[in-house]
Specification:
40% of the residues lie in helices and 14% in strands. It is α/β, with parallel strands linked by helices and 310 residues long. The strands form 2 sheets. It has a 5-stranded parallel sheet, with helices on both faces. A 4-stranded parallel sheet has the order 2-1-3-4, with helices on both faces. Helix 1 packs across helix 11 and helix 5 (138-152) crosses helix 11 (285-309). The protein binds phosphoric acid mono(formamide)ester. Residues 57-60, 131, 137, 140, 264-266 line the site of phosphoric acid mono(formamide)ester.
Length: 310
């Protein structure tokens, strides 16, 4: 198979295992390219991409822009805080105005669940979801699995625990879909108030004891506590959270085995991870960031092949 089964990348829920394999195979090639002295390929010289960011981002926005530029696409960037959205313009009007400038692909981050799906039904461009509220963050899940595959050889059969604020995390949901598609065993661990009640229906088990969860796993993907999405208190204090669910070096060293530590960033140092864990040699957090560029090159490249054929 040399084509994705979807026209847009709205979520991992909409793709299949063959799509993931194709994205990884393509990303393997692009990872080699971006480590050459000349890091650029002319593949998307005729494609124009708009990055619409209605919510803050460091890694995803820079990574998409770099990926698009490495593919030689023309790139325009839009940030809601400096745009006419502040004057009351709707999402559809904003997107249609951008499309009038002959944009082929829109990469969008938005605070509302389903915003990318909605846009895909109303504008004639391909949409890539760069994170929609608490729903999905598909390229993050792809780069996370790609990083596990790189370090452990494959994702199939591996035991992955997702730790922390699962309730508010688009990274968690996309990771669960991606890991299950690839045959991993998945557990979640966090305060009861931050674990959604439906989670077991996704084929995931729950462990409330962090030490037991870490003893079980090969990889811990640790989530940020998303204070900005919390309108009520989900746990008594940050200090208590870090004591019960934070990972420190002493806990890591007590496991009797070396697990991989992952985090999508940004890290609340001292809350979900202590600095010595975030910076430990078993932490692959910066490998995840590096792999993000190759994964996003692969996704954009494969979607653009469809544009050319349409
Ligand atoms: N991982 C992630 O989405 O980070 P940003 O919010 O900085 O893009």
């Amino acid at each position: 198979m040399s084509q994705l089964s979807v026209r847009h990348l709205l979520g991992i829920k909409h793709i299949n295992k063959a799509d993931i394999d194709l994205i990884f195979k393509t990303a393997d090639h692009f990872k080699e390219v971006i480590n050459r002295s000349i890091k650029k390929v002319p593949s998307l010289r005729d494609i124009t991409i708009a990055n619409l960011f209605f919510e803050n981002s460091t890694r995803t926005r820079l990574s998409f822009e770099l990926a698009e530029k490495r593919l030689s696409a023309d790139v325009v960037n839009f940030s809601a805080s400096q745009s006419s959205v502040k004057k009351g313009e709707t999402l559809i009007d904003t997107a249609n105005n951008i499309l009038s400038m002959k944009v082929d692909i829109i990469v969008m981050r938005h605070p509302d669940v389903g915003a990318c799906d909605f846009l895909s039904q109303h504008v004639n461009a391909q949409i890539v979801n760069a994170g929609d509220g608490t729903h999905e963050h598909p390229t993050q899940a792809l780069l996370d699995s790609f990083s596990i595959r790189e370090k452990l050889g494959s994702v199939e059969g591996k035991k992955i625990v997702i730790v922390g604020d699962v309730l508010h995390s688009r990274v968690a949901l996309s990771n669960i879909y991606a890991l299950k598609l690839q045959g991993a065993e998945v557990k979640v661990c966090g305060p009861k108030t931050l674990i959604p009640k439906y989670i077991e229906s996704l084929g995931v088990s729950v462990e409330y004891n962090i030490k037991k969860a870490l003893e079980w796993c090969d990889v811990a993907n640790v989530l940020r506590v998303q204070n900005e999405r919390m309108e009520i208190n989900y746990f008594p204090s940050t200090r208590e959270y870090s004591q019960l669910f934070g990972i420190n070096k002493q806990l890591l060293d007590s496991l009797g085995k070396k697990i991989l530590i992952m985090h999508p960033g940004p890290i609340n140092r001292g809350v979900e991870l202590t600095s010595d864990v975030a910076d430990a040699d078993q932490s692959i957090i910066l490998n995840q960031v590096e792999n993000g560029v190759a994964i996003r090159m692969a996704v954009i490249y494969l979607l653009a092949q469809q544009t050319e054929q349409n």
